[in-house]
Amino acid sequence: MKIILYWVLAVLLTFGAIVYQRKTGPTYDKKIKLVIENVEYNFKLIRSHGGDKDCKVEIEVPNQNISGIIEYKKFPSKDNWTQVPMERQNNNLNGYLPHLPPAGKYEYKITLVKNGQEFPINEGQSVIIRFKGAVPRSILIPHIFFMFFAMFMGNLAGIMAIFEYRKFKFFTNMTVIFLFVGGLILGPWVQLYAFGEAWAGVPFAWDLTDNKTLIAFIFWIIALFANRKKERPVYTIIASIVMLMIYSIPHSMYGSQLDPETGEIIQGWIRLFLAA
Questions:
Q1: Which residues pair with 257 in a beta bridge?
Q2: Which domain range does residue 208 map to?
Q3: How far is CA 184 from CA 85, 149, 181, 209, in A?
Q4: What's the rounded Cα separation, in Å, for the pair 49 and 212?
Q5: Secondary structure (3-state) at 177
Q6: How many CA atoms lie less than 13 Å away from 136 in the CB half-sphere?
Q7: Could you tell me what percent of the chain has a pLDDT over 90?
Q8: Are residues 80 and 151 in the same domain?
């Protein structure tokens, strides 16, 4: 029964972290509600676009008397807003953002219009979208698989270590393997396809996603070697806590970003430092 409890707790922790990331990450669709004349509309505004085509921004608005306007400009920049009417296709209004190189960003906002009255979506605040290259599924899916199980194994190892269950060492080793393959082999491969750089973390730059992976791996390597000859569960517990804290940081926050002036890819932390 104890073993079952360990597994259940690990599953709950893992899925809890995944749900949290999907609700807080800056590249996941932004959910917005808007009421027009007592009718509630629910929208998802896209915040990440992959491939080499223009980005289609699509919202469902069945009322044929409602039109839409999309405005956009490069981010970060002091450019003027480009304003374009949205195209109606059955129940949807579609707007298009011109393609940008990988890591390029736009900020955009949408205003709905009915009988001459304007209804800004998201209270008129802009949404940031980042472009990226197309990542083959043959690489992306294994990357997600290994990273998911690295976190699951890490949570399981940490829980077992807390209760001093002997198999925590085995799952510590498994966490290192999954994290190494998913984060340090497949991760840079994904990054290369998406943004043209295999590694944007320390010591080359300050991409937060890459650095999170590196920090987590270092702590798990320490836990692995600390438990080689003698059981020291405290190291596994610490590594598990660090990984959970790292995974609680929204995915892709302060990630690679294209400087619209120079055309060079920089990282979010550097951009914030330069803007300070």
A1: 266
A2: 2-24+135-275
A3: 44, 14, 6, 12
A4: 23
A5: helix
A6: 5
A7: 64
A8: no
